[in-house]
Amino acid sequence: MYPSSSRAVLLVDGYNIIGTWSCLKKTSKAAGLEAARSELTETLISYSALKYYETQIVFDAHYQKTSGNREVINEFLSVHYTDFEQTADTYIEKLCASLRSEYNQSMVSRVIVATSDRAQRLTVQGYGAEWMSAKQLCYEVEASICIARKRYQPPKQSKSRFLANSIDDKARQKLAQMRMGLK
After folding, report:
1. Strand order of the sheet with strand 7-13?
2. Is the separation of the CB atoms in 115 and 137 below 8 Å?
3. Which of 4, 25, 51, 76 has the fewest other C-beta atoms within 10 Å?
4. pLDDT recorded at residue 163
5. Domain segments of the chain as ranges
6. pLDDT at position 1
7. CATH of region 7-155, choose from 3.40.50, 1.25.40, 1.20.120, 2.70.70
8. DSSP H or E stretch at residue 30
9. Burial class of residue 143 in the structure, from the number of CB atoms within 10 Å of its CB (0-12 exposed, 13-18 middle, 19+ buried)
10. In this structure, are strands 77-81 and 69-74 parallel, antiparallel, or unpaired?
11. C-alpha span between 35 and 28 (Å, rounded)
12. Rounded to the nearest 5°, which phi and psi values hold at 71?
């Protein structure tokens, strides 16, 4: 659930990210674009939930004669395939324009576009959206994974059999004061 009534929207130019992140480029070359799309989607599932972003990954379909579709992954993430002959850039620009009215009505607190396309950056900033480079997104995803690991790791168990060795220093000092009859 979102922490407030307004939401933050993250729009990700999928193929731009795949072409920029070295790990996704390797996956694409070794196993194909479908595998790279899946890896990007899996990577952004946790990130979106941790940041409370409504994330939309947008992939071009302009080379395939198919109609656009949307796949909802969870409450925080969906994947969009554009219509035939529509680029992800055009789709994202139209979405930024439509979200601008929601932004003005305080239904959307932020719109962030993740791409390394300079022209796209300037266009979406014109609509009031924030821009994040592909490298910055990679950095933030990695940082959020580290934070999540620290947050959800169980506390380390003491290898000592004595209780005093398994508690923190502050508690140990209080116990020592109690034992000596001090306050």
Report:
1. 69-74, 77-81, 53-59, 7-13, 108-114, 130-132
2. no
3. 4
4. 64
5. 7-155
6. 45
7. 3.40.50
8. helix 22-31
9. exposed
10. antiparallel
11. 7
12. -115, 115
